[in-house]
Amino acid sequence: MKDTKNIKDSFDLPIKVYVENNEVHCSLKVSDFCTRVLTFTVSEFEEVLKECSGLETSAGRIWWELRTDFLAIHCSGWNWRFPLDTHWNVIKQFEKQKNG
Questions:
Q1: pTM of the full structure
Q2: Phi, psi at residue 29, to the nearest 5°?
Q3: Quick count: other Cβ atoms within 10 Å of Cβ 16?
Q4: What is the phi/psi pair of residue 80, to 5°?
Q5: pLDDT 10s per residue in the chain (100 long)?
Q6: Three-state SS across the chain?
Q7: Nearest CA-CA partner of 49 in 37, 66, 29, 25
Q8: Which among 61, 92, 65 has a CA at the least distance from the CA of 78?
Q9: Distance (Å, rounded) from C-alpha 50 to C-alpha 35?
């Protein structure tokens, strides 16, 4: 029987980042069983993390903004609201994977 613990663990974070081959796959949680994946180049994602408003990327136009009490993300007709600490966790994930 396949171990499903690792599958479930991958959905525990609201945003999970995977860096490979100069691409960043940003998996945004929709539910415990569904995510929406946005793919960027590494340089595009670095700009996104600086908080962008309407940045045109390979994933489409994106807004990634820190508000008073949440992180707001809008891309490809989807809107997300995450706790602020999610933004800082994404930066940690990205830097750790990018720097090996």
A1: 0.83
A2: -70, 130
A3: 19
A4: -125, 150
A5: 444 444 445 568 899 999 999 999 999 999 888 899 999 999 999 999 988 888 898 888 999 999 999 999 999 899 999 999 999 999 999 999 999 8
A6: CCCCHHHHHCCCCCEEEEEECCEEEEEEEEECCEEEEEEEEHHHHHHHHCCEEEEEECCEEEEEEECCCCEEEEECCEEEEECHHHHHHHHHHHHHHHCC
A7: 66
A8: 61
A9: 23
Q: What are the residue ranges spanned by the domains of the chain?
A: 5-98
Tens digit of each residue's pLDDT (9 = 90 or more) over 73-99: 999 899 999 999 999 999 999 999 999
CB distance 58 to 46 below 8 Å: no
Which residue pairs from 20-26 have beta carbons closer than 8 angstroms and sit at least 24 positions apart in sequence?
24/94, 26/59, 26/90
62 token code pair: 């994106």
Q: In terms of residues, how long is the chain?
A: 100
